[in-house]
Each structure stands twice: as structure tokens, then as C-alpha cells.
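Record type: monomer structure entry
Structure origin: computed from sequence
Chain ID: A
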Amino acid sequence: MANDTVAVIGAGAWGTALAQAAAIAGRTVTLVGRDPVVISEINDWHGNSVHLPGVTLLPTVTASATLPNADIVILAVPAQASRDALLDHHARLRGKPVVLTAKGLEHDSLKRQSEVLAEIVPDATPYVLSGPSFATDVAAGRPTAVTLAGDDAEQTSEIAAALAGPTFRPYASDDRLGVELAGALKNVYAVGCGAVDGAGLGASARSALLARAFAELTRLVVRMGGSASTLTGLAGLGDLTLSCTSTQSRNYRYGVSLGRGQRPGGELAEGVLTAPVAKALADQVRIDAPLIDAVNLLLEGNTSITEIVAGLMSRPLKREED
């Protein structure tokens, strides 16, 4: 497969950044969006000031309201919008490699993004892109390394090579399930770490929470069929650390507001909708997940982060490796 043309569904910040990265890699890219103002600005002025201001897009990036017949399709809409986007474009996705980039689980069905794709377009080939990455960094050409996971090693490497550029480096992986779960679940822990910082509980508390989050995440992903080695890489520890410590993370910022006793307004973070799904999955596979439980308690709004942390600290002592 030549992999010369790429279509990105979703003309928000992340979709625009991935379109720019693919263009830098030498691909001809079409951004598929709904807003005619955004589409016109991309085509006429090579920019997306609504979602990614200050970035000049390469001439090989154009925009359209319809999905073209591209070699590679990237889905870059929020997790809860994936089903509608796939339904809108399912006829053009048949038999295509579809790179899924949303880090979240579908709220009502508990399904991963690849499971939603398989339900709507069963003959599409799923790939999962995840790892420590912010749209502003990718679009600005700052060095970024991510994981691209698929079921066929050779084909996954070909897709990774097609998207790789001088500043955007996808590492191929065959653990699609583990990469997908890690990307979704880390957002829940980011809300918790943000709350700890927002409440002023100290860097030691946040570091402890981050370490225990990694242990809990590993237990859950491995029980569900993912590989433990995935959790030590970019899609696991790399993404978890970034999301749990950076103010660029919406999930972390949301948690900071909760820790300060505020109810955040504006755009909802993925971790908020993923938290109850993560709890349901942990219960399904009978994994003790006290940190996921704690974030759900916090989101319910009846308990402060200080009280929740006090409860975690009073749990029975055990060996760290247990």
C-alpha cells in the first residue's frame, strides 16, 4: 500500500495537529470537519484559529465536509463522539485502516474505541494511536514519541512509517488492547492527581498517587488481556506521567478545580466520563481499584479530596508488590 493520502476526521485541535504531523511526514492530508468557517479558514488561510491558533498549516493540508477516498483514515474526535462520526462516514471506511486516537471508553456501552469501530464498520482495520502528546506540541513540530498499535506487525509498521516525520515518532506495537486501555484509564488518574495538587496536599502525595496509579493501571490492564510491558512504555507510564503532572492536560486541570472545591465549567474532560466506566470494568474483572473508586467519589461531589485521601491512607497496610 502506498499510504500517500491521509484523511483526518475531526478538525479540532488534536485532529488539526495530527493532520499537520502527517503533512510534515510527506502525506497529502484532508481534514474532515463540520464547521464551514473552520473549513474555509483551513483552505483559504492555512490555519485553524478556532481550535489551534498560531499554527500555519502546510499547503498539503486541506479541509472538507466529506470524507475522501484516502489510504489511511485517522479518527480524531472525542471518545463520546466516535460512534456518531463513524456512523456518518461508515460507507467510506469499509476495508480501510482506521487509526483511533480518542483516549476514552464509551460511557453507555463500556466499549473501547476499537469495539465501537468493529460494531459499525466490521471490515475496517483498527489501529490505536496513544502516548504522551499534546496537540500544541505536535503541531508546533516539537519532538513527540507515541505508540501505534495494531494486530498485524508488518502492516502496523507500515502505517507508523507513513505517519513518522522528523519530530513525530510512532513506535509500533502489537498490544492494541493494552495501548487502548492505558490511554483511556490514565485520564481517570489524572483527575485524581490534579485534585491532590488543587487541595495543596503536596508533591509527595501526588508522587505517591502517581506510583500507585501505575500499579493499579497495570493490574487492571493485564487482567483484561493487555501486556505488562506496554505499561512501562510510552502508552503507559509515559502518557500517565504527562497527564498527571501537566497543566496542559484537561483532566489534570479539571481535577485541580475539584481539589479547590470548585465545579469546573466549560469543556468536559474525558476522564470524567471514563471514571464510572473504569469502575464498572474493574468490578467486572474483580480487580481492587481504590484509586478509580476514589475518583468516582470525588466526581459525585459529596466528599472532598482531603477526606478521600485520608480514607486511602487508612487502608490496611500491605506489601508494595501486592
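Annotation 1: The chain has a mean pLDDT of 95.
Annotation 2: The chain has 14 helices and eight strands.
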